[in-house]
């Protein structure tokens, strides 16, 4: 049984590497299906999030397969370091957190919802503190970022083309198998730098080496503490109070040097209570009502308004 499962997984990895176009079609169909069933049936939020989370995890797995095959590495958990395993688990948790919150709400009610949110945020806080101690750098919204397959494919083709041209024109191979570069294959002497080629980390595992010190580091610590501070303030003052929102906003802008990177995240405050309830809700409803008059795009605002109420009640959507 174990051998057959291993053989099926090996066949699946080969199919992923050799059929990128068809793979993209299946992945897109899975995401579109989760959007399509949202609001259609009674339990659609849970089913929709389950499909969306599953599709994201499958895409993440496919990214790792493509990345490892490109760099001739094996996807073997025995050889992976503890940090790499934690990165994978943290990324999977990021994709599952909304589904876990919705499931806990349906089974245990409000108490289960906030318990699940607190556990998820505590795990993420411990992970970010660990990475902050290890790197003293900027925290990322994803432990492992989605792979840019198009760019990776272009780089792979250009590298293989250069290698083929270089071997055919400027190199020859000895009987021992050693590749020797010809004298006329070297660049002009004034263009040589006599340095070894720089080794770049593979895409998807880019490590941020930018060190933070002083006030920027303090701002990053506050940014890491924001979810826990916000949850504590919400439990003390309520979900509709201005105090939790103010605390979260202050921690977001504490590090002025990183405000450009997070200015898009600051726009999310327009969709968060109490700002959404008192100000932005009316404006959004007016814009969506106006867009519904157009025949082609009129369906999208209607779907957006139907999903907006559910979206507002999910903590991981609005505040994470």
Automatic annotation (TrEMBL):
GO biological process: peroxisome organization
UniProt KW keywords: Peroxisome, Peroxisome biogenesis
Pfam families given in the database record: Pex16
Subcellular location: Peroxisome membrane
One of the record's GO cellular component terms: peroxisomal membrane
Domain of life: Eukaryota
PANTHER family documented for this protein: PEROXISOMAL MEMBRANE PROTEIN PEX16
Recorded family membership: Belongs to the peroxin-16 family.
This protein's name: Peroxisomal membrane protein PEX16
Lineage: Eukaryota, Metazoa, Ecdysozoa, Arthropoda, Crustacea
């Amino acid at each position: 049984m174990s051998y057959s499962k291993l053989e099926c997984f090996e066949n699946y990895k080969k199919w992923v590497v050799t059929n990128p176009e068809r793979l993209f079609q299946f992945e897109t169909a899975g995401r579109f299906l989760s959007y399509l069933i949202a609001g259609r049936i009674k339990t659609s939020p849970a089913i929709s999030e389950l499909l969306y989370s599953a599709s994201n995890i499958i895409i993440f797995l496919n990214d790792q397969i493509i990345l490892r095959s490109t760099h001739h590495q094996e996807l073997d958990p025995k050889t992976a370091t503890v940090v790499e395993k934690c990165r994978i688990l943290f990324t999977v948790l990021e994709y599952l957190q909304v589904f876990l919150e919705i499931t806990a709400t349906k089974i245990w009610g409000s108490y289960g919802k906030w318990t699940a949110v607190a556990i998820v945020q505590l795990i993420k806080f411990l992970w970010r503190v660990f990475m902050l101690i290890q790197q003293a750098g900027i925290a990322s919204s994803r432990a492992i970022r989605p792979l840019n397959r198009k760019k990776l494919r272009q780089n792979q083709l250009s590298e293989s083309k250069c290698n083929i041209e270089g071997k055919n024109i400027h190199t020859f191979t000895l009987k021992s198998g050693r590749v020797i570069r010809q004298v006329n294959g070297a660049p002009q002497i004034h263009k040589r730098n006599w340095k070894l080629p720089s080794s770049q980390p593979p895409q998807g595992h880019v490590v941020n080496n930018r060190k933070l010190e002083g006030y920027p580091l303090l701002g990053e610590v506050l940014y890491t503490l924001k979810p826990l501070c916000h949850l504590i303030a919400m439990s003390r003052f309520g979900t509709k109070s201005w105090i939790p929102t103010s605390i979260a906003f202050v921690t977001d802008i504490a590090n002025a040097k990183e405000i450009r990177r997070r200015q898009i995240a600051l726009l999310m405050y327009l969709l968060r209570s109490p700002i959404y309830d008192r100000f932005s809700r009316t404006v959004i409803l007016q814009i969506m009502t106006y867009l519904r008059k157009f025949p082609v795009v009129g369906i999208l605002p209607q779907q957006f308004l139907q999903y907006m109420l559910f979206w507002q009640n999910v903590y991981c959507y609005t505040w994470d």
